[in-house]
Design goal:
The complex is a heterotrimer of chains A (355), B (525) and C (375). Chain B is of the alpha/beta class. Chain B is built from 17 helices and 24 strands. A six-stranded mixed beta sheet of chain B has the order 6-9-10-3-11-12, sandwiched between helices. Chain B has a six-stranded mixed beta sheet with strand order 18-21-22-15-23-24, sandwiched between helices. A four-stranded antiparallel beta sheet of chain B has the order 2-1-4-5, with helices on one face. Chain C contains 14 helices and two strands; from the N terminus they run H-H-H-H-H-H-E-E-H-H-H-H-H-H-H-H. In chain C, strand 1 (193-195) and strand 2 form a beta hairpin. In chain C, helix 3 crosses helix 12 (296-320), helix 4 runs antiparallel to helix 5 (117-146) and helix 4 (94-111) packs across helix 10 (243-270). Classes of the chains: A mainly alpha (355), B alpha/beta (525), C mainly alpha (375).
Chain lengths: 355, 525, 375
């Protein structure tokens, strides 16, 4: 049997590849988890906005501003609030307040997008583009002003150390580590994914949000305030993007770099599409996309033996960078598993009431 | 003009002196209306008469400038749909307000959700109520099924369930039969009668005379924003209502003159066409239109007329069958090539298809011929020729505009349609396909366009006329073909056809071989 | 005469007001941020900064040439975005088409680096245009056959282009022995300098492309078709045009212009490519097209404005100590005020001012939702 399968090169290689992936999964899992956090939050932000009918390509900018504000708040608040380290996650009062401010910054930028998209009824792509250009501009501008004094930030959140006994559990120990040996924002993401999924499909708010994204007029005729709900959801989306940004400058690193989001807001959009506009799907896609990078790194460090290894090493590492985008294009084009956006996505809503 | 009949029972709903002005028009001019409990009250009027504005006011979507609304004798201010719903008023819109990807239950409870433990939907309770309601009024529907997978008739029942779920006392239905087959219409009428018998009041908005006569207990007619009269079906008839609705004796015959048809221009054989969703909506149609005659296609909207027309002009590929023009096979050609063979086409929706509203009149007048000489020279536009042609047609077709550069959007509906007519009629044509050529236009424009159609026929063009207005078909056609569910069910001579006969065919499809079906079923028409 | 003036005012009012307001916002940012960092409130700093910005961009012959040279890729990119807008398409992928254009021109340019310039230059430039056109064709084709919205596919393709470029430069194009991956210089395929120290021939052909753009849109039947399809796809189909065909055509030509922008930058300015090669031209081009209201002359003027701002930015940073990134802020605020046009019109009581994309679809995202199919 073995011989027969390996006689067909492609089938053999596929089996080898699967074996390799199973082998490296526990090793790269924690890295993949970390890499998926800001993509995941960006994707959730996308789901939140687009489910209620607002296209948001300004997620990148929202995250960048939040990352900057979180870090800068640390710089300014550290001397005031001090750095008493709390019981868990290496939390300090400064970090907590800075996190709140980062999230609020995301909300504020989202409010601009909401105003432009909902009230001004401007084109939502243009609005998102403006937010991205402005975010890159203002954070780049301020960071080059501030770095003259090379300020110290407030540090970063630390990962939680689960009891050794659990990590040592056979088979599932690594999974537990992947999820829980992480910082608060990462663990928060998993909680939020679950809560968001349930809320979207099981609660009144979720039903109304979905209706508003599919057929806002129908929602208005049963007395739902479309405008208010859209505002609220876009701002909630901003909070999610804010968390994604805060992760970059407050958990993954403790510093801010100009343009440090490096396209994660856009991969988030891709994850949202591949995940078919559901929170769990979007998060799953974010994990998948993140693992594309994880796999490419592990190939460089420890390639599989034999022919498979030769093939994988000969692939340019950029192939794995491009893979998420290629997958998204293929799915969008309906080649496999067509993904359809909410029907009213991107359409400004004109209230029927002519006063 | 309030109710003159001395019946007892306080009105469930009363509107007094409702006036609503929009820039340039008075949409409602001190309208009085009273709706009694358990009554089906028809609101009859032409498109644009002010029915929809009045209902939007009643549903809180628009605020009246003057006047008061009383519910159960109590004066109310309706600030929005939720307030109207709370007061027991529900509306079934002409375009359904349903979300296709949500389930029946989700659609019904939307905005009116019962929740448990802080925000979670109570699905089982909702399901129970929906099933109970359905049972009570004789239409059970699976609450878990997606609305998008239901037929139009069932979607309308979901809309009605939605209203009942909100304990509506007064149900407003805006043109509820526009999208229904005659059979579905009868079924909905059954539902409405049952609702009325249970004490609900129903406001039935329509411009279809025979329906109103069939279903209503009382009929209020409005014209140009004013109530012009009220009738009880037993004391009126179609002519009387039509006169009130239109404002003058409707002339039942247009001076169409003699026609001298020659050989067949358009010949269709065994044509099968599918709609966007892949359903076969035109079944093996055979049809012939001769040069110099007007063939009218009569039918309730949605019986395959749109797809048939699109298949003829090349906007839709037929599944089977042939279309030929003066003996040349044009089946499946692209629309551009069909037009090149001498086919003109006036589409039903001038805003979406017939015109580019943001473009000048001159550009719109060459929309289908910009690539031909003299309007183009090779790859280039010939602006001078385009301009000259525009000036000429604006004069010839009496298009009221300050200049040929004015945007089409600035014109009135009648003048917009004249642009489309001028463009299509100004060519040398073998066949002219007209889809709803006068829909929503004022009487003056209608008369003008009708004259142009007759003139084109007299010039020897074959004309295929599709219209939802039976009167228009009867007035203009030399021959009438009746379509019912994608089939031709009858052919009549345009000058001798009886309205009742054609109406009955439209409504029932006749029976058997499509020959005279009069008397078999006596319900519609 | 006054009718003409009022027409000009109708067109220019909103862009001018937007620029004016963004200058004010920029001053506030400069002064306030300085106060935040140093604790000093210097109102004069804004004047210094703008002074340096202006003199650094148009203050000397050299500055003017630099401005012109920075303008040309923006102009070509702006035309690319503008053509898409006219055809009802939001080509947010000019960034990717720019990169692919640069890549195409460097691949061919390196091969032809020792051939006669008369052969090397046009072939390299055309190679860039073809690469860009191909990168525009893909989203056009995908939209035409499957309805996949071009905004999403072009965003995705931007990142794919970055990956391809990096893979090519660190792989087959890499010069053996160089410290970090980079290509050979394009040698004879470099654009010839015709003005000052670095004013290449792009100064001539890019404006010609703007003229061709106007000619295409308003003088040819194809341009009419593009504009009809942009304003009303249904009307285009009814009129016998083929929206599918037009989408593919428009996206390809738009991509070609984007590719030309990239080739112009590579052959005219950088002459070789590293893995980090890239500019913000693709996104700035959106701003250029919007500020220029998709009109050819408007695009030329707004490209000049943004080109000047990019050029003067470094002088501003050096002379006034105000970071060059301010330019991004100014750009974003100009766009912001432009798209809140209706609000601005109300505040400034402008009755006839035009807000932007009246001729074509104003909301591209309106076709984003639901199951889209192009027929």
């Amino acid at each position: 049997m073995d011989h027969f399968l390996y006689g067909i090169p492609i089938v053999g290689l596929v089996f080898e590849l699967i074996g390799y992936l199973v082998h490296i999964t526990p090793i790269i899992a924690p890295i993949v988890m970390k890499a998926s956090v800001s993509i995941g939050f960006a994707a959730l932000c996308g789901v939140m906005c687009e489910r209620s009918g607002i296209v948001n390509i300004g997620i990148e900018g929202m995250m960048l501003v939040a990352a900057f504000v979180g870090w800068m708040a640390g710089v300014y608040l550290e001397p005031v609030l001090g750095s008493t380290v709390g019981p868990v996650f290496g939390v300090t009062p400064t970090l907590l307040v800075a996190l709140v401010l980062a999230v609020l910054a995301g909300v504020l930028v989202a409010l601009i997008h909401a105003w432009l998209s909902i009230s001004v009824k401007a084109d939502q792509i243009i609005s998102g583009t403006i937010i991205n250009i402005a975010a890159f501009g203002i954070t780049g501008y301020l960071i080059s002003l501030l770095s003259i004094n090379s300020p110290e930030g407030a540090g970063q959140f630390k990962a939680w150390n689960p009891p050794q006994a659990i990590s040592d559990l056979p088979v599932v120990g690594w999974l537990f580590d992947t999820v829980f040996a992480q910082g608060p924002i990462t663990i928060g993401l998993i909680v939020i994914v679950v809560v968001f999924q349930i809320a979207l499909f099981r609660t009144r708010w979720g039903l109304r949000s979905r209706a508003v994204g599919e057929h806002p007029r129908a929602a208005e005729t049963v007395g739902i305030n479309v405008i208010r709900l859209r505002y609220r959801n876009v701002m909630l989306g901003g909070a999610l993007a804010g968390l994604g940004g805060a992760f970059l400058s407050m958990e993954s690193t403790g510093t801010f770099q100009p343009g440090m989001t490096v396209g994660r807001g856009f991969i988030g959009l891709a994850a949202m599409i591949v995940g078919r506009w559901t929170p769990i799907g979007a998060f799953g896609a974010a994990l998948l996309f993140a693992s594309s990078v994880g796999i490419s790194q592990s190939i460089l460090i420890a390639p599989p033996p034999g022919q498979l290894g030769d093939i994988l090493i000969s692939l340019p590492p950029q192939f794995f960078d491009a893979l998420p985008y290629l997958v998204t294009i293929i799915i969008l084009a309906g080649v496999i598993g067509r993904s359809i956006p909410p029907a009213a996505d991107g359409q400004p809503y004109e209230r029927e009431a002519a006063t | 003009m309030t109710s003159e009949s001395p019946q007892v029972g306080a009105p469930a709903l009363e509107m007094r002196g409702i006036t609503k002005r929009y820039p340039g028009v008075v949409a409602n001019d001190s309208i009085d209306l009273d709706i009694r409990p358990g009554e089906i009250h028809a609101l009859l009027g032409e498109n644009g008469a002010g029915k929809t504005t009045l209902m939007n006011i009643l549903y809180g979507l628009a605020r009246p400038d003057e006047g008061t609304i009383l519910i159960g004798g109590e004066e109310v201010r309706l600030t929005g749909p939720s307030e109207a719903i709370r007061r027991g008023i529900s509306m079934v819109h002409q375009h359904f307000m349903l979300v296709p990807v949500l389930t029946v239950a989700e659609n019904i409870i939307l905005g009116e959700e019962t929740t448990v433990r802080g925000g979670f939907l109570d699905r089982s309770e909702a399901h129970k109520r929906i099933v109970d309601l359905g049972r009570r009024f004789g239409f059970e529907v699976d609450p878990e099924v997606k609305v998008g997978s239901l037929s139009v008739g069932w979607q309308q029942r979901v809309e009605i369930l939605k209203a009942l779920y909100r304990n509506a006392k007064v149900l407003v239905l805006d043109e509820p039969t526009a999208v229904l087959t005659p059979q579905e219409t009868q079924e909905i009428f059954e539902v409405l009668r049952r609702l009325a018998a249970e004490g609900h009041s129903i406001v039935f908005i329509s411009h279809k005379l025979y329906e109103v006569l069939e279903i209503a207990d009382r009929i209020t007619v409005i014209r140009r924003g004013k109530v012009v009269g009220q009738r009880v079906p037993a004391e009126t008839n179609e002519e009387d209502l039509a006169e009130m609705m239109v404002g003058r004796e409707v002339s039942l015959t247009v001076d169409r003159g003699e026609s001298h048809p020659a050989g067949a221009a358009l010949a269709i054989q065994g044509l099968v066409v599918r709609d966007d969703r892949g359903r076969e909506v035109v079944h093996a149609v055979d049809l012939e239109v001769r040069s110099g005659e007007i063939l009218g296609i009569a039918g309730v909207a949605g019986n395959g007329q749109d797809e048939l027309v699109e298949a003829i002009v090349g906007l839709r590929k037929p599944t089977r069958g042939t279309v030929s023009l003066e003996g040349i096979d044009i089946t499946g050609l692209r629309s551009r090539d069909v037009y090149e063979h001498g086919v003109g086409y006036v589409p039903a929706d001038r805003h979406r298809f017939g015109l580019v509203l943001s473009f000048s009149i001159a550009d719109n007048l060459v929309l289908t011929s910009y690539h031909r000489q003299p309007y183009s020279r090779g790859l280039l536009r010939n602006d001078e020729a385009i301009r000259e042609a525009a000036e000429e047609r604006i004069k010839a077709f009496d298009i009221r505009t300050p200049s040929a550069d004015a945007k089409a959007a600035t014109l009135s509906g009648g003048n917009q349609q004249k642009v489309v007519i001028a463009r299509e009629f100004s060519r040398d044509l073998k066949l002219l396909v007209l889809d709803q050529p006068t829909r929503g236009l004022d009487v003056g424009s209608i008369e003008f366009i009708h004259k142009q159609i007759i003139a084109k026929r007299n010039a020897g063009t074959a004309i295929l006329l599709v219209s939802a207005e039976l009167d228009e078909i009867l007035d203009l056609s030399d021959r009438i073909a009746v379509v019912y569910r994608g089939k031709l069910v009858g052919l009549r001579d345009g000058r001798t056809a009886e309205k009742n006969d054609v109406g009955l065919l439209m409504a029932t499809g006749g029976r058997a071989n499509g020959d005279s079906a009069g008397g078999e079923t006596g319900s519609a028409a | 005469m006054s009718a003409r003036l009022s027409r000009a005012w109708a067109i220019l009012a909103l862009p001018l007001i937007s620029i004016g307001l963004s200058v004010i916002v920029g001053s506030l940012v400069i002064v306030f941020s300085q106060w935040l960092v140093t604790g000093e409130l210097q109102a004069g700093l804004a004047l210094d900064a703008y002074g340096a910005l202006v003199s650094g961009s148009v203050g000397s012959e050299r500055a003017i040439v630099n401005t012109l040279i920075n303008t040309m890729p923006l102009l070509l990119g702006g035309l690319a975005v503008g053509l898409g807008f006219k055809g009802g398409l939001f080509n947010i992928g000019v960034q990717g088409q720019f990169l692919m254009g640069a890549l195409g021109s460097v691949i061919v340019g390196v091969q032809l680096r020792e051939s006669p310039a008369l052969i090397a230059i046009p072939i390299s430039l055309v190679a860039g245009m073809i690469f860009g056109a191909a990168w525009g064709f893909i989203p056009g084709f995908l939209k035409a056959v499957s309805g996949a919205h071009e905004v999403v596919t072009t965003i995705m393709l931007n990142f794919v282009a970055i990956a391809i470029l990096a893979a090519a430069v660190s792989g087959p194009l890499n010069v053996i022995g160089s410290q970090s991956p980079q290509t050979l210089p394009v040698g004879n395929a470099s654009l010839p300098v015709i003005l000052g120290r670095n004013g290449t021939i792009a100064i001539i052909y890019a404006p010609i492309m703007a003229i061709l753009y106007g000619w295409l849109l308003f003088r040819t039947t194809r341009g009419f078709e593009i504009r009809v399809a942009g304003a009303s796809p249904d009307a285009a189909r009814y009129a016998g045009m083929s929206p599918r065909h037009l989408i593919i055509w428009t996206m390809s030509v738009s991509g070609m212009l984007g590719g030309m922008a990239g080739a112009t930058d590579l052959l005219g300015a950088t002459h070789q490519m590293t893995t980090t090669y890239g500019t913000t031209v693709g996104f700035d081009a959106i701003a250029v097209a919007l500020l220029g209201r998709t009109n050819p002359l408007g695009i030329v003027l707004s490209a000049l404005l943004f080109g000047a701002m990019r050029t003067g930015a470094s002088a501003m940073q050096i002379q006034a100590g105000v970071p060059a990134d301010l330019v991004g802020v100014l750009q974003a605020t100009i766009l912001f005020f432009l798209i809140i046009g209706p609000v601005i019109k109300r505040i400034f009581r402008l009755k006839d001012a035009k807000t932007g994309l009246e001729d074509s679809a104003t909301t591209f995202t309106a076709t984003y939702g639901g199951e889209a199919t192009i027929r």
